[in-house]
Amino acid sequence: MAAVSASLVKELREKTGAGMMDCKNALNETGGNIEEAVDWLRKKGLAAAAKKAGRVAAEGLIGAAVEGTKGVLVELNAETDFVARNEEFQELVRRVTELGLTAEGDMDKLKATKAPSGSTVEEEITRAIATIGENMSLRRYGMLSVGQGAVASYVHSSVAPNLGKIGVLVALESTGDAEKLVELGRQLAMHVAAANPRWVEPADVDASEVDRERAILAEQARASGKPENIIEKMVEGRLRKFYEEVALVEQAWVIDPDKKVKTVLQEAEKTVGAPVKCVGFLRYGLGEGVEKEESDFASEVAATLKH
After folding, report:
1. Which of 155, 161, 170, 217 could anchor a disulfide with 188, C-beta 3.0 to 4.6 Å?
2. pTM for this entry
3. Interval 15-43: pLDDT, tens
């Protein structure tokens, strides 16, 4: 049998939305005939994914996994919240998340990583689309790691262990007690889930964001009619409030709002037995930033009846 060309596999994949290996197998089975290969995939239920590709996928699950001093978050979207309670979907998210520990934070590498079944992650998702019957999208994947210390995770609104609607990783650098670091990291991850900071330290805040905020605050202060030297002081004072909102270490600790997070880190040094530094965090909220279609159920029913 003649070898199937890569361009033919690509064409079939674009036509059907099926995985690369499935397309190759279909072409091999049908002697390279594209139309017969489409039928072969449809009979196997693998071409159904293409019909669902246009639907908005903003539900689903966030998965978290930690191994030693590294951790990953994955967001796998589906169309409805119902799918998040599907055990087959949960197992898929869990499997993809665990495979993420080997993909070095690279999305393309994760999609090409082989699962225990022998299929790639991308092919496994395509199969799940056909089986479960909803469009799905591997939307985000990120990794945090430290040379020495701990990475801790927290998943909020969980439907199963390490699967839920908000996932957080926190990376702590320290030579101290690893177990106590993980415990501290989990508390910090819970704080990040609730307070949603954008940066770790004020120094990390993007300069353009600071300039924009300063300009807005200056205009607001000038409206009070105060002289410029007073306005400068007013702006700096209000900028401190801005940092308390967006920088993790400057935020009020959710467990004890009388303390700042930086104070909690300093106090933890006694328990951990060494200096502790938060070097990063990652927070995924399910579907954030995805434009969801608003549907009018009554209109949909009326339109259906007309047809």
Report:
1. 170
2. 0.75
3. 776 777 888 888 999 998 988 888 888 77
